[in-house]
Amino acid sequence: MSRLGSTAFALALAGISTQGQDLPTATEIVEKSQRAFYYPGADMKAKVTMELITEAGKKRTRVLTMLRNNDPKSKNQKYFLYFHEPGDVRRTAFLVWKYPEKDDDRWIFIPAVNMVRRVAASDSRSSFVGSDFSYEDVSGRDLAADTHTLLREERLGEVECYVVQSVPKAATDYTKKLAWIDKTTFLPRREEYYDLQNELARLFTADKIDDVAAGEGDAKKTYPTVTRRTMKKVKSGHRTEVSFDNVAYDVGLDDDVFAERALQNPPQKWIR
Amino acid sequence: MVERTLNRLAALSAGHPWLVIGLTVVATLGFAFQLPGITTDTDPKHMLPVTSPVRQYNDRVEKDFDLHADVIALGIVNRRGIVNRETLSRIAELTREIQKIPGVITHDVVSFSTLDDVTAQGSELAVRPVLDRIPQSGEELEAFRKALFGNPLFLNRIVSSDGTATAIYVPIEPAANGKEIAAKIRKILPQDRGDDQYHLAGDPVARDTFGAEMFRQMGLFSPIAGMVMGMALWLMFRSVPLIVANMAVAMVSIIWAMGLLIGLGYPVHIMSSMSPVFLMAIATDSVHIFNEFAFRFGEVRDKRRAVLDAMAAVGRPVFYSDMTTAVGFASLATATIVPVKIFGLVVGFGTLVILLMSFTLVPAILMLLREGRIPKVARGLERDDASRRSGLPRLGTLCVRHARAIAVVGGALLVVAIAGLFRIQVNNNMVHWFKPGSDVRTADRIMNERLGGTSTAYLVIDSPAQDAMKDPAMLRDIEGLQRELENDPRVGKTFSVVDYVKRINRVLHDDNPAFDRIPDSAEEVGQYLFLFGASAKPTDLDNVVDYPFQKANVLLQLKSWDAGVMADVIRRTEAYLAAHPLPGGATVRPAGIAYFNLVWSDEVLWGMLRSFLAGLVLVLVLLVAQTRSLLWGILTFLPLLFTIALIYGVVGLVGKDFDMPVAVLSTLSLGMAIDFAIHFVARFQQRYQEEPRLQEALVWTVARPGKGIFLNAILFSLGFAVMIFADLTPYMTVGVLMAVIMLLSALASVIYLPGLIHLFHPVLLKGDAR
Question: Between 1.20.1640.10, 3.30.870.10, 1.10.287.110, 3.40.630.30, what CATH number should domain B1-56+239-377 receive?
Answer without folding.
Answer: 1.20.1640.10
